[in-house]
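Check this.
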Amino acid sequence: MNEETNLRKTAPAEEAEQPAAEKDAAAVPAEQAEPDFETLIRGKYREAYLRSVAELLAAQAEDRSRYERYRALRAEAEAIRAEDPSFDLNRALENPRFALLLRDGVDLRTARAAVGEGAARRPSDEQPLENGLGSRSMAAVFRTDPRSLTKEQRRQIRRRAAKGEEIVW
């Protein structure tokens, strides 16, 4: 019994000397202790970790590339603006064709030339429109009236419908 009493008296003193982290580690068996980060990324989570790092690096590179492209575009717009003070990049970007060319990597001068000299300007009445393309023109819509079809035309339509073709009037 004396030995037990001695052990009880010395045990709390030893516990007081150990830091809290060591107490927790000593209380949990070695198999259940949570592994550190380095062990995890070398073990079963290695592939997921490497994949997420690669995705993060790719996203950062893409962001950096976009920013560099933006800076180059702004510098090129300033150079064009020095030559043509009426050029406005924001207005030019309202043109979907112009914006698509820039998105696809075409430089600003080439995109401006491809869309037309007035890429920054909206189409005006100065440019002649072809017949029937004006805003006031009335376009004729022609539809087939089934009542005006011949028997042979109706028979052909029935055959096509029987084969599964959708007939739209």
In short: The CA atoms of residues 63 and 69 lie 10 Å apart. Residues 34-122 form one domain.
